[in-house]
Amino acid sequence: MTLKTTKLRDAITFALAAGATALVGTGTAFAQEPASDTATTLDRIEVTGSRIRRADIEGAVPVTVIDRAAIDASGDVSVSDLLRDATFSSFGNFRPQSGSSAQGVADVDLRGIGSDRTLVLIDGRRAPYAPSTGVSADLNTIPLAAVERIEILSDGASAVYGSDAIGGVVNIILRRDFEGAELRYGRGMTKIEGGDTEEGSVVFGTNSDRGSLLLGASFSSREMVFTRDQIGGNVRGASFYGNNFYFEDPADPGPGGSDGAAGGALTGYACDDPNYYINGANCVYDFNAVAANEASVKNKSLFARGHWQIDQDWSVYTSASYSTTDSFGRYAPTPGRLYIPEGTPNDPVVGDGLGVFVYHRYAAAGNRDNFVDNAVSDFNLGFEWQATDKLFVDFGVRRSDAQFKEIGRGYIVTPLAEAAAASGAYNLFDPFGNPQQTVQGITTTTSRDGWFNIDEAYANATLDLFDMAGGLSSIAFGAEYREEEFGDLYDSLSEAGVVAGSAGNSAEGSREVYAAYAEWLFPIVDTFDVTLAARYDSYSDYGSDISPKVSLRWQPLDNLTFRGSVGEGFRAPALPYLYGKRAFSAEQIQDYRSCLAIGFSPADCGGDANGDNIADGPENEDVVSYQIDSYSSGNPDLESETSKQYSFGVAWDATEWLNLTLDYYNIEIDDRIRLIEYQELVDFDNRGIALPPGTSVIRRANGSVAEVNTAYANEGDLETSGLDFNARTRFDLGDAGRLENWLQVAYVLDYTVTDGSTEKDRLGWVTSPDTRASLRNTWTYGDLSVNWNINYIGDQQNPDSSPDFGFLAGGPNTRVASYTTNDVAVNYQLPWNGTATLGATNVGDRYPQLVGYDNRPWNFYLYDAYGRTVYFRYTQKF
Length: 878
Prior knowledge:
Layout: H1 6-19, E1 63-66, H2 68-73, H3 79-84, E2 118-122, E3 125-126, E4 147-153, H4 158-161, E5 168-174, E6 180-190, E7 197-207, E8 211-222, E9 225-226, H5 227-231, E10 243-248, E11 259-265, E12 276-279, E13 282-285, E14 292-294, E15 296-309, E16 314-331, E17 335-340, E18 356-361, E19 368-386, E20 391-413, H6 414-423, H7 436-441, E21 443-468, E22 471-490, H8 492-496, E23 499-500, E24 507-525, E25 528-539, E26 543-557, E27 560-571, H9 575-579, E28 583-589, H10 592-597, E29 626-633, E30 641-652, E31 658-670, E32 673-675, H11 678-687, E33 696-699, E34 705-714, E35 717-732, E36 738-755, E37 758-761, E38 771-781, E39 784-793, E40 796-797, E41 815-816, E42 819-829, E43 834-841, E44 869-877
Parallel strand pairs: 2-5, 29-34
Antiparallel strand pairs: 1-4, 2-3, 4-5, 6-7, 6-44, 7-8, 8-15, 9-14, 10-11, 10-18, 12-13, 15-16, 16-19, 17-18, 19-20, 20-21, 20-23, 21-22, 22-24, 24-25, 25-26, 26-27, 27-30, 28-29, 30-31, 31-35, 32-34, 33-34, 35-36, 36-37, 36-38, 38-39, 39-42, 40-41, 42-43, 43-44
């Protein structure tokens, strides 16, 4: 859509602020009121959540707006940082993690139901997925300097946009109408060493009666942060992959066999090399001393867009952008499990007739360093045609290419390492004393190449049909065609599963998508209207889906609006889920029969009073964990998952200075697409429950688990519901300026996951808070404005016993306290059309509680650990 006048832009901003759910981020909560005659001259535009072009912006679904003023007033340098503070991100968002297979990626997860169930749009068109994940968009490749505003639809929208819009839609609107030039530069300094930010941009724009043109370039960066600096250098990690051994299991001998009795620290090794230390009977490795938690991210981008009015009825528009994101991450040296045959030079117990398995850290090979380069190019060309006074047509083509390259250094080839250890060429008793050529001989450089490309053609039309008591009945209809190509190719050694310290495998696939949709508005009376919508999507690889939706809006008073909707949605199987190759990992499980088979007592294995706990799962949580060979793969027989959703709410402009909104949502997801957990499969096998297709648990003759194979499957359900409350105030203080406040609270009422035959209410568990809130305060006095923002994350408490399967962060009965941070910024408009900003985020220097989750010392999705961050920014307009 094109906003043609300043007055129109002001009117739209005000209408969205007054009628939408909330404004997240910092900055102005209320825009300036438009002139009294503006409402009669509003052009009809398209707003996120609807294809119908209309002047009445407040519709039947809640839309949240983060405008340019809010972006400028924040201390954020990326789209992902901005959205991480949104209360809709109930359980947090993924961020760049050192050592992760998605190291440089950042996403958004609305309602806590998964980023792959949140649709990200750029100017109303689907953003490409990150090639390293293949399931969600990478926000790090979208330059914040190019963004005009972000619209968040907190309602299901598959009937309008198709797959993935179950949790909602994030529509990133890029800047378009800009006159003059703008230069910007900013720096941020974190209390913790590392993590500093830098940003800069230049934007040029020109407008005329016939069209507009905008050109821009930007960069932003955040440096790498080491674990030792965030959690304190005296908090040591203790990885069993230091230098420890287990005896060979006589019932399962050889390199692929299982562990027997524990031997403890490798006999004859002093365990005093850098970062090694003795912990009880074991020689462990302090991975916190060398590993980074957060990878560095550097973004550079070029962007351009233009619009030209060809004649009275025709106009053409185009946009192009190119963005690169470079990331560097460091993980601790490679851990590995080696088989040492009996009597060979590295056998710690010669003459016992048994070989050993050594859990070793290849510290002499150095750290694992990963270098990631992402690049996204996007080009769109479209035409708008006012065919008649009743028919408007918009059509065009788009090409989007996302490329990904990764290089990993310091990884170990397990067969070469085992051969060198068996021959004595590699000395386990003196890792740092090994010749450099020996270490290099077992070391490899890994690589990945990926892409996710989209070719798209689309056509939309809005047609006014007939008059009704409440106004014009209009219909929007259209069609889309899309080709998707995905690839994520690993090097041959990684594909073979012989590289220690890494996991994953290649995936490659493509498909075609055809879609047709319609949306029909019925303004029954002036105060009540109904909108019907439906969409048909056909995928070349799995089948088709139909998504209907009904939305209602009732406005009994000028300042009071009730709204509601009910609909169905779907998520198509992601290409990696369909075409991923079999990938190896070595997972830990708890299994009673396996525990007994390797020599532990029934009590150590979690046995009950009868010494038999096969079906019930361990009663004692501190039971022995057992490492097994595990494999995961895609499933070409996957079907889509489906959802049923409804919402209703109220918006009340109580006074000139107070606006309130309250919305309720309910989402039910059936036939969830998920990777079945290894522990879950073992528990299924113990209970005699049929395993999902493509999965298996293979046991040895003695009953122990030898191998578990998992795959993506349509298995399980999810249901969640909650409330979104907003209170907005604006006070004219006369000579003392103006004060604006915005309170936003997201409260999750229910979050229930059903896997197999087990139902779990996960709400309130660690990593799943029931409450997120923010309070934005802005005081403006002439050229001076002050922002004070408060961000709140509710407390979490694990149940006093673990679930039958699944990972429970922190263990039973773990509690994480509530977490509140304060951000303050001062902005001053300088006489020469410049703006200076000085601010600090987390001024109280709060740090997250150290409860481990997803191989991190705290929940990376919900919290950061930068400490107090002081920043400044200067903007000059010409």
